[in-house]
Write a structure and sequence with these properties.
metal-binding, Jelly Rolls, 44% strand, mainly beta, iron, 324 residues, seven-stranded antiparallel sheet, globular, 2 helices
Length: 324
């Protein structure tokens, strides 16, 4: 998905200094319209001033459930990416993906699409005509410096459900509950959907070197005893060997569990680009506007590509997370 804000903010990202976990930090989402009077509105929990990264996860949009007859569904014209991987995960609906390396694929509930932008890629995303309700998340992963100019790529995976005592997990990146995803990433990562039965509590073994984020989709969820409202994201610092997820509601609860070791590099993120300097971002924008072969061409999309927003007058510069 493109960040289609007309005036996207500069976001500088850097690792927060490590320390003993002091508790669970709650990140509240902000609503962002994706353009147009009938366009979707997403709930964005990353990046924000309180926290810009969880591991290498640098962007999290949570949307729906939206009635397509009212919202118009998703129709994101071809747009570029550099320096990141995009991760698409759905709860309902179907999205058609086309990209400039020739991939033409669909993502359905319980399936993951991972696209590597690297030195440059472009793609489109459109909900299918038979989609009546659209509900899911769009996530971005920052590429480390040594891999940020890697070749563009696309991967698709359908994880099998893993039974938990009181729930179920689908591991789309990394390892959890004895299951490991085959999808390639450039830093250690965890990405999993976890569902909890009514009244259930599940304690998961997690990597103590990871920081974790729990994005709540539905249910009365507590993370290590701390309540997290739907659309909220609970952050935990490295040092935990387990995470306990509890569902206090009478229906099934659903969360996404994200994790990774603290990302030790400063980043500049603007529009659909993740880089290290203002000049790198400005060059990518110029290449896109000039139709450079760097981003290739998306075949089969019936319309024009997205123009790049205007860069801010000030120089883009990296920022660090607030000190603990």
């Amino acid at each position: 998905m493109s960040n289609t804000e007309a005036h996207p903010a500069e976001v500088g990202c850097g690792a927060r200094e490590n320390g003993t976990p002091a508790g669970v930090e709650i990140l509240t989402a902000r609503e962002v319209p994706l353009g147009g009077p009938r366009a979707m509105t997403v709930r964005r929990t990353l990046p924000q001033r309180a926290r810009t990264l969880i591991g290498a996860w640098c962007f999290a949009d949570h949307y729906g459930p939206d009635a397509v007859s009212e919202s118009g569904g998703m129709d994101v014209a071809p747009h570029p990416h550099i320096g990141l991987q995009t991760v698409s995960w759905l709860f309902s609906g179907v999205i058609e993906h086309r990209d400039s390396v020739g991939s033409h694929a669909f993502v359905r509930p319980g399936e993951v699409n991972l696209m590597t932008g690297g030195r440059g890629i472009s793609h489109s995303e459109v909900s299918t005509p038979d989609t009546t309700v659209l509900h899911g998340v769009q996530l971005w992963v920052a590429l480390p410096a040594e891999h940020r100019d890697t070749a563009p790529d696309f991967q698709h995976h359908v994880p099998a459900p893993v039974a938990l005592d009181g729930g179920e997990a689908r591991v789309f990146l990394g390892s959890l509950a004895g299951d490991t995803s085959p999808v390639d990433t450039f830093t250690p990562l965890l990405g999993a959907e976890v569902t909890l039965a009514p009244g259930a509590a599940v304690t998961l073994d997690v990597d103590p070197g990871f920081e974790h984020g729990v994005l709540v989709d539905t249910g009365d969820v507590r993370v290590d005893g701390t309540a997290v409202r739907p659309a909220g994201l609970a952050y935990t610092a490295p040092g935990r060997h387990t995470l306990t997820l509890a569902n206090g509601s009478s229906g099934t609860a659903r969360v996404l569990l994200l994790g990774g070791p603290p990302f030790g590099e400063e980043l500049v993120m603007w529009w659909n680009f993740v880089g290290r300097t203002h000049d790198e971002i400005a060059a990518a924008r110029t290449d896109w506007e000039n139709g450079s072969e760097r981003f290739g061409r998306v075949e089969g999309y019936p319309g024009d590509r997205l123009p790049a927003p205007v860069l801010p007058n000030a120089t883009l510069s990296p920022r660090r997370n607030p000190a603990p």
